[in-house]
């Protein structure tokens, strides 16, 4: 993961971990990798990962069990709300940038549809391979 030097790393980890939850990389109710494991994977201080988890716990997206570790929430409504919020944030950024370069709504919609189709075309082989 490449970090943005303009934002605290723990904040970026909250975003990455949230993305993993809404994308289903970390399924509802499943155990999350240990702090040290994630810190090694991401090449950050374990305290930074711990701080990100603290934020996710406050948002009730993960829960800690003293002897078992951390788990993704089972609350599908909370996960759906997070997915919608992340998508709304991405849409706001895209809208701002598209307007900033003078794109019309129609041109922005066309560009988005093209990128959506490109993504689907590039994802299909990976999905087919996963099916075996």
Compile the SSE list and pairings:
Blueprint: H1 9-22, H2 35-42, H3 46-58, E1 62-65, E2 69-72, H4 76-100, H5 105-131
Antiparallel strand pairs: 1-2
What do these coordinates show?
Residues 126-132 have low confidence and may be disordered. The longest helix has 27 residues, at 105-131. The protein has helices at 9-22, 35-42, 46-58, 76-100, 105-131, and strands at 62-65, 69-72. It has a two-stranded antiparallel ribbon with strand order 1-2. It contains five helices and two strands. Helices cover 66% and strands 6% of the residues. With 132 residues, it is mostly helical. Helix 1 (9-22) packs across helix 3 (46-58). It folds into two domains: 9-75, Arc Repressor Mutant, subunit A, CATH 1.10.10; 77-131. It is elongated, with a radius of gyration of 18 Å.
| Percent range for β-strand residues | 5-15%
Structural class: mainly alpha
Q: At CATH's second level, what is the architecture of the largest domain?
A: Orthogonal Bundle
User: H/E series, N to C?
Assistant: HHHEEHH
CATH class of the largest domain: Mainly Alpha
Q: Which runs of at least 5 residues are low in confidence (pLDDT < 50)?
A: 126-132
* Widest sheet: strand ordering: 1-2
